[in-house]
Recover the amino acids of this structure.
């Protein structure tokens, strides 16, 4: 969330005055955002509002033109920063599952833990099996991705992202590529992560999920955070005309 609360520890994520343009077109125009530890913040907005670009700047897939981004107090937009080191602290899941087709489920899930974080194979696999059991996929651990449904692949991708115990988890439209019948099982896993204390920034068009599971909702419109608040207030009494129009279009659809 964004605000002026005084805390003894820095937020997990602090975004200050971030701008990003592509070919002279502004996509982010002064984004300010704080996310505290164990918070789930949901960013909503129409296509082209800047949601995915914001996540890409946080994970350093795109460099900001101006502004700063802090991860637990560290300025990760400093040009001298070690990009790989920063990314090892952040888990990312996109709408495309991005599983390695030539690796089994267990190898997909444990690869980053073993290769990036140096976790022993036995330890990584034991933790992976616990999570796969928790989401009902333990029987699939030796299967390859093409044997899994879209919902199963996406849950495996999320488990892969969280197995390295990231300080921040970024989820970008993780249900958009799924059959509607499979959306619920993926969002149930995100609810489990919230219960387990994960810190999450996610973009989604699933308003019922945002209303029930988010701690804070932000509405991006033309590259700015136009409105934000706790879910009850945000959805119950939005103040900006653009927010009301966006929500009404979703309900109409």
């Amino acid at each position: 969330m964004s605000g002026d609360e005084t805390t003894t520890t820095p937020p997990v994520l602090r975004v200050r005055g971030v701008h990003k343009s592509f070919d002279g077109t502004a996509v982010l125009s002064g984004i300010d955002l704080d996310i505290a530890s164990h918070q789930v913040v949901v960013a909503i907005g129409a296509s082209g509002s800047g949601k995915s670009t914001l996540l890409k700047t946080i994970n350093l897939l795109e460099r900001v033109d101006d502004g700063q981004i802090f991860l637990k107090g560290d300025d990760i937009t400093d040009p001298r920063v070690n990009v790989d080191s920063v990314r090892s602290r952040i888990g990312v899941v996109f709408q495309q599952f991005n599983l390695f087709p030539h690796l089994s489920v267990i190898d997909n899930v444990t690869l980053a833990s073993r290769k990036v974080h140096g976790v022993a194979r036995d330890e990584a696999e034991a933790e992976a099996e616990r999570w796969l059991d928790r989401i009902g996929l333990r029987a699939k651990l030796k299967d390859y991705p093409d044997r899994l449904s879209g919902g199963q692949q996406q849950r495996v991708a999320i488990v892969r992202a969280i197995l390295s115990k990231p300080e921040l988890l970024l989820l970008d439209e993780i249900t958009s590529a799924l059959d509607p019948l499979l959306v619920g099982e993926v969002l149930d896993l995100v609810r489990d992560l919230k219960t387990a204390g994960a810190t999450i920034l996610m973009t989604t068009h699933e308003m019922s999920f945002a209303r029930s599971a988010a701690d804070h909702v932000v509405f991006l419109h033309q590259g700015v955070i136009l409105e934000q608040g706790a879910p009850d207030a945000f959805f119950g009494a939005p103040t900006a005309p653009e927010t009301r129009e966006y929500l009404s279009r979703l309900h109409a659809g």
Notes: Strands lie at 13-22, 25-35, 40-44, 66-71, 74-75, 90-93, 168-172, 200-203, 216-221, 224-229.
